[in-house]
Every structure is written in C-alpha cells, then in structure tokens.
Amino acid sequence: MLSPANATAGIRAEPLVSLENVGVLRNGRWLVRGVEFSVSRGEIVTLIGPNGSGKSTSAKAAIGVLKPDEGRVERKTGLKVGYVPQKLSIDWTLPLTVRRLMTLTGPLPERDMQEALEAAGIAHMIGAEVQHLSGGEFQRALMARAIARKPDLLVLDEPVQGVDFSGEIALYDLIKSIRNLTGCGILLISHDLHVVMAETDTVICLNGHVCCRGTPEAVSRSPEYVRLFGSRAAQTLAVYSHHHDHTHLPDGRVRHADGTVTDHCYPEDGHHAHGAHEHAHAPHEHGHDHDHAHGDGHAHDHAHADHDQHAHDHAHEHAHSRSGEGRHA
Ligand SMILES: Nc1ncnc2c1ncn2[C@@H]1O[C@H](COP(=O)(O)OP(=O)(O)OP(=O)(O)O)[C@@H](O)[C@H]1O
Q: Which structural domain range is residue 181 located in?
C-alpha cells in the first residue's frame, strides 16, 4: 500500500515554507541560529527539543510572526496558514461559546464552520461554553478554528497539552486525518521528547540550533540526540501508531488506551504474539496492533527502561498543563 508520505512525495518539490540558516536575535542573545527545515504539502514535520530550545521561535519565524535577524524564510506566494499557538489569551471569566471562538478573528461562513467542527469531531459542541470543555475538546476547538479557513499549512504548537493519554492518540489521529483529507502541510511542535506521531515524516531536534533531523527512528538513534537527552531518552523514544491499545511507560508500568495504568500488560494485548524483531519496523510500515515503534529492534528492553531526568521534567511540565491531567504523572 502506498503510504501518505510516498503518495505525496511527487508534489514535495515545492515547499510551502522553507527556512535557510535562520537566526533570531533578542536582547543581544541568539534565541536560535542556523535553523534549516522545510514543510511541503502533505508533509508532517515535528519540532522537538528541551524547554527554551527555540521550537516556538522557529515556528513563528516560519509563518512570519517573527522576522529573522539572519538567514532566509521563503513562503509560497499566497500561503494560507492555520496557527494554533501554545498559549491563547482568553479571559476565562467571560462566557465564550465554541461558535464565538470560531469567529473571534473574523467572520466565517456557517457551512465552513460546521465542516471544520465536524472534521474536528465536535460539531455537537457548537453551543458549549469553552470554559466547560475538556482539555481534548478545547484542543479540537482550536484545531477546528485553525482548519476552518482551509490553510495550506497548519502549525500546531503543542496540540496535545492538557490532554490525557487516550485523548492524545485521538488528537494525533485527527491531525493525521486532517492531513490526509486536505493534503495540507503540518508543522507540529511537540514538548514531549519521548513520543512523536508515527506519521511524522521528519523530526527536527532543536537545541538553539538543529541538533539532528530525520525520521523519528533515525533521530532516536542519532548520537546528537543521545548526547543531548541521554541514552535512556533515546531508548524510550516511542512512536505512536494508529492501532495502539497500550503503551509501556519508562518505569515499566503499562498504560492502556482507557488511561488506566497497570504493572503488566493484559494477556490479550496485541504485541505478545510478535517477536522482538518485528518491533524494528519503520513507523510507516506498521501493520501490527501495538505501539512499540522504538528506535531500534530491541523493543522490550527499551520499553522497560528506568525513568530518566527528562521523564521527570515532563511529568512536571504536564502536571501544570491546562486541565491538570499529567500525562506522565
Ligand atoms: N521575545 C523574546 N525576547 C527575548 N527572549 C525570548 C523571546 N521569545 C522567546 N525568548 C527566549 O528564547 C528562547 C526560546 O524560546 P521558545 O519559546 O522558542 O522555546 P521553546 O523551545 O518553544 O520552549 P518551550 O518548550 O518552553 O515552549 C527561550 O529562552 C525564551 O525565553
């Protein structure tokens, strides 16, 4: 079967946006330097890196919100961008319906609004107050707002924040289906070093500069990634694929699709029928019904690696996310 990545390869020649040697200088400090990447139609590019490594800055430079102080950013003429920022300044004390949220930045034909809400799976919540939405529903509303104007490029800054585990998988599925449906390019910022979308074509690992790049699996194997985040981080870099029913946490416990955590897998969990070598498939080649797409073939060793400092950092970070649902708690 032709994967989406291959299917779009032919029209990748002309990027929607490309950054060449981009640097952003503020108060005498280079926030990022030497950033190079591009996003083409149908392509999913994920930026990862520690806090303050310049992910948001690079994304803002890509869409023109920030002007680079050196290097070049080229955008396709007439490029339409849908942007979901990391933080939204919403006055949570004032009532705001989903319908109103959709039109805050400008009028929108009713049909386009309905279509976008339907695509995001929250058409029935059009009259709901934004304050009452769950973390996942809120992210869906933001995504609906971003896709309503049919962008060529969708930029999502941490789209799974405040979302529990099964909600995260559902959001990644939604992002994938938006890409498949519309063929737009997607630039995703992930604050989770350990989990990237299986459909990501290219991971760009930032640390003030591009530390390494490639497929999720290549990045998890790269010496630069290991140097930056430690070998245990590389060992636990997991790749979500569509058919996950559970995931192995770095401390050895198992989290199931319904969010429950147990010490062991259930006997019916899919991967136990498979040999370890089957876990070495690239994300796009996944046909089996589990979630052990690790950097190399030693899935079980890696799945049960101990917590490292980064995992703790993320627990902390997610514990402070909007809904207070810590993914790594
Ligand atoms: N306008 C600004 N002026 C000065 N410094 C800034 C400005 N915007 C961002 N920074 C700094 O630039 C660095 C990169 O910030 P950026 O938000 O791009 O990082 P990030 O990788 O997205 O981080 P996080 O994971 O914490 O969201 C940080 O040290 C931040 O404090």
A: 4-80+151-229
